[in-house]
Amino acid sequence: MDDPSNPARRSRRRSGAITVRDVARMAGVAPITVSRVVNTPEQVSVDVRERVLEVVRKTGYVPNRMAGGLASSRSRLIAAVVPSTVMSVFMPTIEALNDALFGAGYQLMLGQSDYSAEREEALLEAIVGRRPDGIFLTGILRPSQGRTRLLASGIPVVETWDLTPTPIDMLVGFSHADIGREVARFLMGKGRRRLALIRASDERAERRAQAFIDTVKRAHGGEVTDINVGVSRSLRSGRDALARLLDQRADVDAIFCSSDLLALGVATEARVRGIAVPDDVALIGFGDVPFAADMAPALSTVRINGADMGRLAARHLIDRAEGREVAQRVIDVGFSIVERDTTG
Hints:
- The protein is of the alpha/beta class.
- Helix content is 44%, strand content 15%.
- It has helices at residues 7-15, 20-27, 31-39, 46-59, 91-103, 117-129, 145-153, 176-189, 203-220, 235-248, 260-272, 306-321, and strands at residues 77-82, 107-112, 134-138, 157-160, 170-173, 195-199, 225-228, 254-257, 282-284, 301-303, 330-332, 336-338.
- β6, α9 and β7 (225-228) form a beta-alpha-beta unit.
- α2 crosses α3, α5 runs parallel beside α12 and α6 packs parallel to α7.
- The two termini are 46 Å apart.
């Protein structure tokens, strides 16, 4: 929770963004000195430079890279940070976001983090310095320098593809923990008891996995075999993961994959090994990407209405950029389990 006694927080509430004058006042120097520290630090003494930089670190201040005379004008640019655009479950969201923004006269600038927190931090620093009219985030931003910068910037922010009681600003998403619980209940309702997870290593997949494991344990005390493929999310990763899983638990009868692409890899390896899906093992993915319905057998999966998220996020950002209030700042779009052939 933000500390209301923090000078950066008080200033943001008052003016909407931490400015060079705010930094100068907190550091006890003139605004020109702050500019010199940022742009020509060799012109400033070490003591003064360190004092100013300490305030910059604490407040999250990022200098406006646009000309000062343009500070009051709108850029009509929305920046988005997404984990991936390759075979991505996020594409319907990005496409709907882009279409809605373009129709309202805004342009979308896209940055790809590759699921790297360090890369996301670097992208956010570059984005905030260019002062777009709004920022779209995939996922929620945990306490970090990037979150501090966004809070200090006064730029409208919408987080998506997740839920939290403490969003930075606005949020359009769904609960990953609820998905984990519902998928576990769905598979157990099919009479499956020897359950496993095959998942990539990212925070949202881990929350689905933990809720899945907890639900199975509460239901009948069963152990869930958890195969983590790391940062890789390829078809090959799914094939290799099934091989690892069978080495640990040959009698597994249901698998929940953290993406449809991993599930496709699992289904491919199962077919090569003569394992019948769903007779021997049920299989469910996540995302309902276009190929899921066309697999043989067709893949059961969790469907997220990504296009709705994109449209709602765009509407929120446009409203805020144009000075309108957003009445409902947190929207849960929910999810659904799509039952097809791989779960019988």
